[in-house]
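so my prof wants the structure for this chain in the tokens format not the other one, which i didnt know existed until like an hour ago. anyway here's the sequence
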Amino acid sequence: MIEVNFQEALDAQMVYKRLSKAKLNKSIKYIEFQYNQEQSNSISIFINNKKEKVISNFLIPVLTNYMIECKEDSWLLSIIENDFYFTDYEEQYQILQIAHALIEGQYEDIPESKDLVSREELLKSSLLEFIEDPISFSFESFVKFRLREYGEQLYKIIELAIDEYKLEQEYQNFIQNLRDFTAERKPKLEKLHILHDEQFLFFNESFIEMKQSEMIKFIDRKLVLNHPMYIDSTVIAPLVSISPDSISIYTNEIDHGMIQTIQNVFLERVKIYSKHYFDQVKLQKKI
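here's what i got, hopefully its the right format
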């Protein structure tokens, strides 16, 4: 018999339901469960045949999925609050969302994210080394004393998530400062066209190309002094300094970081077109 004891009745109930559902789905007749709620929050598991196979292919997957789907977020939030001292609910939520994105592989540009190990494999490995028949153990004690590598992985995920959160906060502050800067300026040019073709080329309202030396002359030195580490001197600095009423961007890469930044700063002033449309509009202008 394998007996799992829980401190919380809700945990016992949820695991019992998951075990029962998995047994029904797999049509396994040689496993029985008893849920003792009155005396203790414990689940007794009786395996009458193929014990090792049942433990590795049935019991361990159920416990693994339960910990990831039902317990992991609370463990991640505990690390955020108790190890990194983020107590504001909104900040905790944002960091947790970034952690989820990291787990799902959405931050491939972060080198350290490639070193993250599968949480499922860490949990399965720890459970496989520990569970045998017979055994009686506390779920909470197992989590506390047997999941060191898994806990280190969660800590690493939160560490990376917080670094990314701070970078995103800095970026948002940067964007807001540029918005404020452009809002207070009188436009030096009414309209600009930007062709994105590996590099960014500027054209005035008449579709005459503006050379880089000409663009540099527009740059407000105060802007560069206030944002020396963030401001891009070839695109953002001249564009914000000119602060045109209208910006047309011609590109085949709408998700490009620089284009996203231009959109975030100038908002409704920006219109995006495909790159091949540039020649059509330019020709019509000349006609």
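also thought this was worth mentioning. Strands lie at 2-5, 31-36, 42-47, 135-138, 191-197, 199-203, 209-210, 246-250, 270-273.
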